[in-house]
Here is the input.
Amino acid sequence: MGLTDKRVVVTGSTRGIGLAIAKEFLTEGALVAIHGKNPDRLRDAEEMLEAFGHVLPILSDISTEEGITHLFEEVDSVFKGVDILVNNAALHEASSVSNAGWDAWERTIHANLRSVVMSSQLAFERMKNQHYGVVINASSFAACVPALPYGIYSSIKSSVLTLTRILAAEFAPWNIRVNAYIPGSIATDMNKGFVEKGNHSAVDPIALGRFGTAEEVAAPIVFLSSGKASYITGAALEISGGKFTVQNPASAWTD
Here is the structure.
């Protein structure tokens, strides 16, 4: 993919999709800064990934301005810049719009939107001087078809899609591309119990008839970050196994 020695930052990369993304970049020869706010998970992720290449672990809470600033200061001290930013970190909290207090909105906005805005701004400051860069933002299938009781989460992830298009246009004069990815039902540690129960109601809307894997999300993200995707910007790549391609995809499996 031509990513050897590219300096990559992947937020929220101690497990699940983020960890798989970091590993995929490392196998392509990139230098990868992994991030998390749990020290034990960060250490475990570093130990798992260091066999694949150069890993820089950074402990910070990017739901705060101080945490975001610290993240980029640490990257600068070792990598001396950023080529690719993957805004993967997110807070997935059940909060209904009809009865949630403003504190629930603030938690979700800070973790899922403000962190993306600020991280993108700080990455832009570094990328524009080299006239090159890629920013990839995590949205969610909940941005396409909202899910209850995740009303606030769905709303904010929808905002990430609009933000991606805006940043793609604003960053374009400096040869910086901005895209988003929309994961569907992915089997990760966070929903392991749900997946193991074999919940057919969750699989029925998926054309491929199964949950996806974190690795199946990571590979397309690395592609979007590479020169092979040089004319793709402002786009949102759905990685969902064909979820709701039609109203009743499960019927194709029974006819």
